[in-house]
């Protein structure tokens, strides 16, 4: 079976550079592209990236790329790839996704069917099975994806399974949760470091607080879940276990963190508490029912991260205007605190009452949102302190 892989980590639009940085932090060289980051590695790399990447969606193996302007070219191109190095006899291998963009081939169901036929034929040939007799598919699953972009076909195998944003700690989510990997990316885009206080005054199900605590304690985001590749028969289970054990040993549960989440809705606070407990962080994160208008603190140099309701999702327009205005008034006295506010409301700054130092376009699912960034004033310590 294969030892070295061409890999991609897929990422939401706007988050590719964050994913790239995370991959480099694992000691892996990579190239950032639109929607993905490319890198190479072995099975250990697949295990480490799945376990450790906080902001990526999925890790996929690139089996090959070739021009495909006709169904014949597609068939021959797929057939020529070394599927036998990935798929043992008996594998289940659905063509789970076919996507055609700006290409002559555009009928996705046909692309899917041709791809399947070509992989089947290749395996029949390699394993000396008679053509015409379907292959038995009752073993572990290898989800194959085919994407054709500008007449160039790319064949991929998903190693992740459920998207990486599913960490395994979410028991319930409330009306408008932010995805875990998006929350982790925003924390990394912010100027929060684990030695600074962090408050999410509209914490909902607690996603920012939980992700921050996991970053602060160096807990691998995937520690609580499995990945598709772990079920593959040729995957060395000891090696994967060693990667998991190493992750466990790298976690620092003693680090002091100051992370607080509040929400006006007591039911959401209960959900956040349950999620924090599920993540093993119940003692680490302070969660309480409170209106953001009542937020006061004497602490300095902290970071506020908030994903308040937006018109499309939870509240009507008038209520949003008032909420954002009160938010501005409540946060204004916290001069040394940085504030990062994620909303789809393009009038946010005028309602909030001050212009952001920086704005960054992101997508919360398919909804276009902006991260409004207000940097806190630096407090210089006097020499005598
Ligand atoms: N990021 C959260 C979702 C936030 S949705 C998550 O991942 O789950 C917005 C939240 O703001 C809701 O839970 C809502 O109850 C809360 N909220 C609305 N008005 C508020 C106010 N005045 N003070 C505090 N929280 C408020």
Automatic annotation (TrEMBL):
Alphabetized CDD domains for the sequence: THUMP_AdoMetMT
Taking every annotated instance into account, which residue ranges of this chain make up the domain THUMP?
A: 45-159
EC number assigned by the record? 2.1.1.-
Keyword annotations for this protein?
Methyltransferase, RNA-binding, Transferase
Xref: PROSITE patterns: N6_MTASE, THUMP
Which GO molecular function annotations are given, in alphabetical order? methyltransferase activity
Alphabetical list of InterPro entries matching this protein: DNA_methylase_N6_adenine_CS, RlmKL-like_Mtase, RlmL_1st, SAM-dependent_MTases_sf, THUMP_dom
What is the protein name given in its UniProt record? N6-adenine-specific DNA methylase
Protein's organism? Streptococcus loxodontisalivarius
> Lineage, please?
Bacteria, Bacillati, Bacillota, Bacilli, Lactobacillales
């Amino acid at each position: 079976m294969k030892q070295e892989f061409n890999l991609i980590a897929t990422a939401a639009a706007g988050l590719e550079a964050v994913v790239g940085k995370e991959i480099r932090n694992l000691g892996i060289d990579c190239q950032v592209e639109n929607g993905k980051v490319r890198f190479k590695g072995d099975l250990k790399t697949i295990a480490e990236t799945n376990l450790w990447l906080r902001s990526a969606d999925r890790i996929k193996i690139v089996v090959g790329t070739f021009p495909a302007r006709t169904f014949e070219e597609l068939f021959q191109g797929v057939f020529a790839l070394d599927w036998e190095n990935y798929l043992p006899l008996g594998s289940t291998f659905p063509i789970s996704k076919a996507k055609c963009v700006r290409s002559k081939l555009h009928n996705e169901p046909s692309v899917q069917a041709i791809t399947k036929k070509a992989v089947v034929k290749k395996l029949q040939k390699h394993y000396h099975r008679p053509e015409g007799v379907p292959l038995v598919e009752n073993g572990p699953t290898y989800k194959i994806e085919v994407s054709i972009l500008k007449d160039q076909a790319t064949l991929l195998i998903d190693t992740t399974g459920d998207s990486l944003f599913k960490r395994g700690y979410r028991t319930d989510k409330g009306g408008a949760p932010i995805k875990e990997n998006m929350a982790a990316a925003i924390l990394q885009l912010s100027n929060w470091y684990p030695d600074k206080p962090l408050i999410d005054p509209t914490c909902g199900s607690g996603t920012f607080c939980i992700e921050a605590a996991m970053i602060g304690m160096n807990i691998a985001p995937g520690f609580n879940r499995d990945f598709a590749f772990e079920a593959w028969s040729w995957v060395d289970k000891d090696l994967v276990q060693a990667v998991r054990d190493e992750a466990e040993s790298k976690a620092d549960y003693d680090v002091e963190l100051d992370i607080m989440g509040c929400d006006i809705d007591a039911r959401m606070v209960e959900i956040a508490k349950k999620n924090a407990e599920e993540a093993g962080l119940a003692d680490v994160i302070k969660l309480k029912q409170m209106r953001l208008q009542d937020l006061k603190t004497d602490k300095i140099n902290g970071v506020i991260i908030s994903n308040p309701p937006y018109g499309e999702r939870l509240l009507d327009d008038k209520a949003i205007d008032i909420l954002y205005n009160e938010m501005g008034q409540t946060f204004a006295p916290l001069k040394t605190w940085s504030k990062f506010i994620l909303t789809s409301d393009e009038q946010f700054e005028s309602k909030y009452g001050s212009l952001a130092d920086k704005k960054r376009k992101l997508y919360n699912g398919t909804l276009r949102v902006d991260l409004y960034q207000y940097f806190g004033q630096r407090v210089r310590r006097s020499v005598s302190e």
